[in-house]
Amino acid sequence: MSDSMIVKTIFLRADAETVWDFLTDKDKLGEWFHPADSDLATGSDYVLKGQADDGSEVRKCWGSVMEARRAEKLVYTFTIEPLGGVMTTVTWLLQEVHGGTRLTLHHEGIGAAADDMALPLLMALDAGWDAHLSQLRDAAK
Length: 141
Prior knowledge:
Elements: E1 5-12, H1 16-24, H2 26-32, E2 45-51, E3 57-69, E4 73-78, E5 88-97, E6 100-108, H3 115-139
Antiparallel strand pairs: 1-6, 2-3, 3-4, 4-5, 5-6
Helix pairs in contact: 1-2
């Protein structure tokens, strides 16, 4: 399953500049995904944070920003604990459309995780992206 990829497209009632800020600004990321330790920019590492059951801060996902073309394209490596150190790649494509932005997500490399866990991980990530994209749609009004 090394060719597994999640692809999602949503439409947002916000211009591409606004959507870009929600994808890269450390505070705006927290409105729909997880707060970051710093803004996402080409060549930088990032950590998205959350809270453990005991209230302590934990690392939810992390990686490195490979490409950041403002309001057009964002590419970063991405991993979470269940991926066991396997780095996947997330690509965001932004395109202005009448009255807003079409945002497309490509999440690749999930199948590189342990083969017996690839499908459950793929399904969990797929459902997670659905929930987060719904939150983005609400946040980016």
